[in-house]
Amino acid sequence: MKKIALILTFILLANSSFCQNDNSMEKTIYQFKVKDIEGNIFDFQKLKGKKIMIINTASKCGLTGQYKDLQKLYEQYKDSGLIIVGFPANDFLWQEPGTDKEISEFCEKNYGVTFPMMSKISVKGSNMHPVYQFLTQASKNGFKSSSVSWNFQKYLIGTDGKLDKIVPPRTAPMSEEVISWVENKATVVN
To answer: What is the pTM of this model?
Structure first.
């Protein structure tokens, strides 16, 4: 009888630690698979160990010029483990009205974008994409709740797949704040 109780206790403990591992996985970006701008599956699990910047983009926004610095940042740090993932969204004053094909052509032609771009989604409201539910809800990301205030808001994910930092839309991709995060430098707060 003692052996059976011991075996059952062991099974329960093993199952509870397995569930804990599952819960911690839920707090990372690695749980998501999304459709890229070409219609292929993009699996965040393949980015394990990299720093990830997730950014909602728009082609007809006053901040659209940030594509140039995003591409520059990507080229400068991609070999050091940085990846930028763009999510086109038409949530702010209809500034991303195009189709995935039109968006892809615009980004390549005007800014030479080579970092991964995903299929157009919604980053706010009742149709918010699950990735953005994760990014904006502390209960899902284990870090902080936020709302996407405009196009080109940056969500910075650490090498462990967890949300590290939220950077406002007007902060340039090549800003000291972003570069310090990429290079693991402490930033001075005034």
So the answer is: 0.84
* Residue 61 bears catalytic tag: yes
Contacts of 152 (CB under 8 A, 6+ apart): 55, 56, 57, 58, 61, 63, 66, 169, 170
pLDDT in tens, 34-58: 999 999 999 999 999 999 999 999 9
The whole-angstrom separation of Cα 162 and Cα 52 is 10
Of 61, 63, 174, 179, catalytic: 61
pLDDT digits 0-9 by tens, 130-176:
999 999 999 999 999 999 999 999 999 999 999 999 999 999 999 99
Domains of the chain in sequence order? 26-182 (3.40.30.10)
Query: What is the distance between the alpha carbons of residues 142 and 135, in angstroms, rounded to a whole number?
Result: 10
